[in-house]
Structure formats: C-alpha cells, structure tokens
Amino acid sequence: MKLKTKAVVAIALRPVRVALAMLFRFHMYNIMAVTSSTTAPRQKHVRAHMMSSFRYVANASDHLRARECTPTTVMLPSVDFTTDGIMDNIDYTISKQGKYNVVLPNQKKEKLYQNTVDKNEDEKLTVIVVPHSPNGHSDLLPFDQFYEQKSKHTLDRIVQKLSQYKDMSFIWTETASLSRWWLEQNDATRQQIRKLIRKGQLEIVNGGWVVPDEACTDYHDVIQQMIEGHRWLYNTLGVKPRVNWAVKPFGHSQTMPYLWKLAGFNLMVVGSVHEAVREYLRQRIRLQFSWRQMWDPRGDTDIITQILPYISSATRHSCGPDTTVCSRFDFLKSPPISEVLREDDPDFVVMASALYEQYRLTANASPRKTIFIPIGGESGWTKDSEWDNNYRSYQKLFKYMNSRSDWNISVRFGTMTHYFDFLKGAQHDVNPTLSLGSTMPAFSGDFLPYSQSDNTYWTGFYSSRPWIKYMSREVDAALRTADILHVMACIQSPFDVGLQEACRQFTEELRTARQSVALFQKYDAITGTSRPGVVDDYKKKLLQAMRSTQLVVNWAVPVLMLTDLTQTVNMFPATRLPYGMTLSWPPTAAVRISPTRSVNVVLFNPLPIDRLETVTIRINDSTVAVSQGNKDINVQILPVLSAENIVNSSVFDATFNVMVPALGMETVRLYRNDSSLSKTQLSDISIKKSAHTIVEPSCFRAEPLPTFREIILENNCLKLEFEGRTGLLKEVLDKMSGRRTTVDMDFVKYTPYKGNSRVFQARLEAESFADYDKLNVFSKQRFDPILSPGPPHSFPAYNTFVSHRRGTVPSYIHRQHQ
C-alpha cells in the first residue's frame, strides 16, 4: 500500500544563551506547523538559493570552524575608578532615616563636595532647566489605555505650548507612543513638530521604541527595539538622536553604553545607581565620566556619561539636595507663583534665593560650572494649566536670578544637547586641543544591583514572573526566523505579482510583531513589575506576535520547498499551534503515525553555521522510525510522565540528531517500522525507591537506579565534570593553564515578603529545595549520548538523562509555567 506523506512540521533552531551549553549543543527554539499534500521537497534548490543569497555565510562558517583554543593576552583598561573599587570603599551602615552613611575620605588632596554655598563665586554658573516626561507607558495601565489617557495629550500640548512659548523646550524619550500619535495628526501638525525639532525646542533623546530594562533583556531585543525606534525617527522626522536618556531602569549594565556607542550616541544620562555609590561619587565630584569597557584598553568605546546627582529626575528631587525646597518648585503639583507678585517682594526673594542655593549646592558636585536640572514627574504635562504654570513661574524666577550680578548665574530652558554643547564649549575655551571625554575620569564596571535605602536591593525583578520573560525570548527567536524566511521567500520570484503582494502583507505582520516584542522590553514590562492587568495585556501582544510569525513561516516554507507554488497550504488549527494560551510545547496532542500515514518534518537553521541539532517530537507510536534522505537514523524513544509520575503508554517522545546546513533546511520522515532492523531504541527507566514512579505495562523496561559515575563534557579549551547523581557542575578544568576550579552548586529558595516584585526581601534564610532522590533517569546506552532538551525553569537535562521532580516541577515535555 502506498504511504500518504504529509509535510507537518517546520522546526526552527536557535543557540542556547548559556555559556556552558554553547560549548556542546544548541536548543530548538520553536516548532512551526504547516501542512500540505506535497511531494518530495526541493532540498538542493532551496539550499543553493539560500547560500547564493547569503555569500558571507561560508566565510563565517570557516572562521568559526577554524577557531582554536589559543592563549590570549588580555589588556586591562586604564581607568580611574571601577565598580569593585567603589564597593570596597563604601560604608553600608544605615542612618536612622534609612539612608546610607557615606564616610568622606581622609585624603586632603582629593577635591570634595562642599555642602555650603559661596555667593561670591568668581566662575559663572550656567543652569539648563530641562522639562521632560516619561509619558511612554507605565506599570499601572496597559499601553493603549495609557496612551489615550496620558501620552497623546502630552504630545498635543508639546506642539501647542512650544509653539506658543518660543524660549521653552522639552525632551521626549520613546518612539512607541510618538509613532502612534503621528498617525492621528494632520499635515499642519506634522510640519509644526518637525519645525520644533529643527529649532531645538523639542529633542528626541534615546529614541528607541521604549526605554529598555538593562538586567532582564537580551542584547538582541535591545538592539531590535532601538532599530525600530531610530528607523521610524529617521524615515519620518529625519532625526538621529545624540543623547541616550536612561534614568528609570532598575540599575545599569556595562553592556548598554557599548551598544549605545555603536548606535551613534556620544552622550548618555543614567539615574538608577545604588544610593551609596551615588553619594560616594557625588562627594568625590565624579558624576561625570567616560564609561569604558573592561576589554577596551585604548578607550575606543568610551561614551561620556552623566549620573543624576539625586535619586530621581522628578522636580521634587532634582533641583538640589533638599526635597522640601524642590517640591515648592514642582508646578505640576504645587501652586504657581502669582503673576502679581513683584520681584522685590520679600516672599519672592526668599523663594528665588532658596532655588539659587539648591542650584549652587548641585553645582558643587559638578567639575564644571554647567549643570542641568530636569523638571517633570511620573505624569503631568497633559493640561494647558500645567504648561502655563511651569513656564510663567520659572521665567519669573529666571529673570530675577539672571539679574542678580552678585549671584553670577545664568538660568534658561534647554535640552540635553544644549547642556552637553555648553560643556564642550567650556572645555574648548580652556583647551581647544582636548576633547571633552579625554578630560573626564575613566570608569569601568556596572551599576547593578540597584538599592535606594535600608539595604534593600532591587533584584527581585530578576525572577519576577519568569514565564513571561521566557515567553519574550521565544517570541524574539521565532521573529528572527520568520524575518529570514520572509526575505528568502520574497526574493524567490521577484516578478510574481501574487507572491510580492503576499510579501507586502506579511511585512506588515512582521512589523507589528516586532513592535510588540520591542514594547515588552520596557523597564516596567519584561521585569514583571507591572500590575496584573498590564501584564495580561503584554501577554496578549506577545501571543499575537507569535501567531504572526507562525503565519509568515507557514507561508514562506512552502514557497521555498514546493515544486508547485499554486498548491494550497493549510495551517494547523489554533489548538495545535505551539503557543496557545497555555503556552505549552509540544502540544498535548501527539503527531499521529500509522501504517498508512507518515510525517515529514522540516528543520530550518537560521544561523550562518552548520549545526548538529537534537530534535524531540511527541508521537503516538513507539515503533516510529526516522529517515533522512533514504537512510534511517538513530532514534531514542523517551517515556512521557504524567503529573502523578505515571508513565504514559499512548504517547512518547522521539529524540534524534540531525545535521542542518547553515541557513538551510533539512527534511526527515517519521514513519512506522516494526522491523527488528529498525534503528529505533527504547529508553530504559531507572527508578529510585523514593521516586514513586509508576510504570504500567508498556514497552519500556524498568530497573533499579545504578550507581552513577561522573559525567564529562569537554572541548579543546575546557573540561567540565558533573556529578552523576544530580547532574550539577562539579569541576572546571582550563586545559591551557591547567587550573582547576571546584564548583559547589545547589538549588535554593527564599521566602519573600509580599507586595514588591522589584525588591528582594527575604523573611528567612535560603533553603535547598532540590530533592535529588526523587529524580527519574531515562537512558539508552546502545547509542551515542543524546542530549535531551530540558525545562527552562527546572533541573538541567544532561547527557542521556532527563531529570524530573515529582509534584512541583513539570516535566520538560510539557514546558508549562505559571
């Protein structure tokens, strides 16, 4: 009887982002499904087409294959201070007010911050007041709702009020809400905002789709959201942002200044720095510096950096060290200065003098007599009155302060570019041969973790809502694959009108998906710190993005592989998609194999190097065989455990290795084979007495758990030794130096306080929760070891073993997360 073939699954592969795992294998990152009544795929044609379209691949592959483990001399950068140096010299004792005590150094030669004001300063103080708002979206409302209630009104007022007040300015950070607002405007409004940008009244700082988190995000996602925002700005407004404004993320990574430098930024402002570190740097007048990478001895990647002198960019914190005084000048919340109040009125003089004193105290922490003072808050700038009150009140203060020759001060509205231009001009006047960055101290390190007071560290968000963090990685990986396949399919037949129309439609699908992923990189999104309703909104956007990538893949794969492009391609129903609302893979329903029905599985490699991939597919028959070309390959059948640790006798996991060419596809066929010559082997189930695993009458053989020897993984550079019983790393050998490093690993948990997903506050000491006596091991020694994919938030899977903890951690087969 002739078998009916069915091309079922296109599997896209991606590298694991864990250093040790990258030495040996790559994870599968998504399984996409397409069905058609197709004949044999056009393997050779597709592969040749891919390689001809990506000429750089061969060179990249050869370079990676040729790499040897050779000793490297690392040149450390020459810097003035580092993270470690700061941390080692801070006293972390807490005052009665909950603040960090910072002890001043004893060295008399070091210039220190002065907490007094000399009103007879010889050097003129220049103050740039920078109105701003983080009105992109928040952790309290979903993006769409926040835009309707807040962001659109702020943008409306920016155009209206900056056009009215010619000497006022404003900075805006995020492109997500700006691009949406743009679509709603008429040509006159669009021309007006372009005019405001050209005049320098409105500056776009950062300019990414959002302001990303710097601890939980992946660098690829950060780059993509920046590209999405900057591309829109350049194509729409002709703008290339110069300044990066990142005052809200919960700490700052050393990777970010490197990425920002590559993105074209020369200047950056950061805010979320450990308060003891901020105070330490403020006392030593080192809030301005050149941020240097640890691997850059020459400083080619340096970027000029400014740390906010105080805890926040909100007005009540930003004008100076006294929040009581600064709150009086927050005219978004406080009453404005009366227009009838004369400048010689004693009440007004007292108010202006108080603001002047705060400005001078802030200037004492700056090596140059030019400072910027951000004004704004978490919300605001949405009403006419808020703009009018701020402009008129500050202009009255500016006029009086500038008229006081004994104060020797110049105050005005401006943007961050104005501020840095003043710094550069001052440096040029002193020594025109030196750049501004070369005169600043060099710093190397990061500003993680963040802490405000009371020794409470903002590390809780590292693991808050891990399910949605994992989901973001999966969607991004699927999006990358869809992008590549989309391009390949679109250049397949450039003169096919129907094909090119489909290309345009799917381009929009991918753009929307890309923007949804970019939106989730926000510091209050991927961190898992938003309210439940906001998190649900992000989930929906990510799910829709995943479905969009599936639509593109389901269209592109047949275009690349079918001989007859007119054949109809049918997608699996939504219940079979890898990412339904339960986000489980593989789907609960197994791929059905029968004596009359076989299944073709298409694997796509989105990387420019050949890869040996371990693939696991859920099936309904333990006698399945897998063929690649006309040759059967080795297959290991793994049992599927239920939540009660009962071995399922009707579904199984078939695991096998396949070599997939760079940017190429490979097809394998799954079919039933009862022959004794089959290369399919069943795993043995080794059980401990305490594992409570039930093996019903089935095809698997159960036996007592043997004594485990250590597991060794190695390459030319490293040799890793894992404990056989637990699978945890035990020792690392550097083959070049001969140095051995002993590793002691365990899985522990803390009992946290409730109510704060940002801060890590444990009520009790950590306790181990990994009960290794309740592990089941599936193995088959007749084959070379197969490294089975393991759960992202469970125990590691290693060698031929798949670990599973009964009752609390789901099996890797289900990959379900709460």
Please provide a written account of the structure.
31% of the residues lie in helices and 18% in strands. Helix 8 crosses helix 17, helix 16 packs antiparallel against helix 17 (497-519) and helix 17 (497-519) packs antiparallel against helix 18 (532-561). It starts with 6 loop residues before the first strand and ends in a 39-residue tail after the last strand. Mean pLDDT is 78; it is low at 1-9, 14-66, 104-110, 563-587 and 780-818. With 818 residues, it is an alpha/beta fold. The strands form 8 sheets. A 7-stranded mixed β-sheet has the order 14-2-1-15-21-17-18, covered by helices on one side. It has a 6-stranded mixed β-sheet with strand order 3-13-9-10-8-7. Strand 26 (718-722) and strand 27 form a beta hairpin. The protein has 18 helices and 31 strands.
How far apart are the first and last residues' alpha carbons, in Å?
A: 47 Å
* Computed Rg: 31 Å
Strand order in the largest sheet: 14-2-1-15-21-17-18
Question: Which regions have little confidence, pLDDT < 50, spanning 5+ residues?
Answer: 1-9, 14-66, 104-110, 563-587, 780-818
- Counting helices, strands and paired strands, the structural category is alpha/beta
Gross geometry: globular
| Total count of helical runs of at least 4 residues | 18
How much of the sequence is in beta strands?
15-25%
- Helix percent band: 25-40%
Mean of pLDDT: 78
Compute the number of strand runs.
31
Task: Please give the largest β-sheet.
Answer: 7 strands, mixed
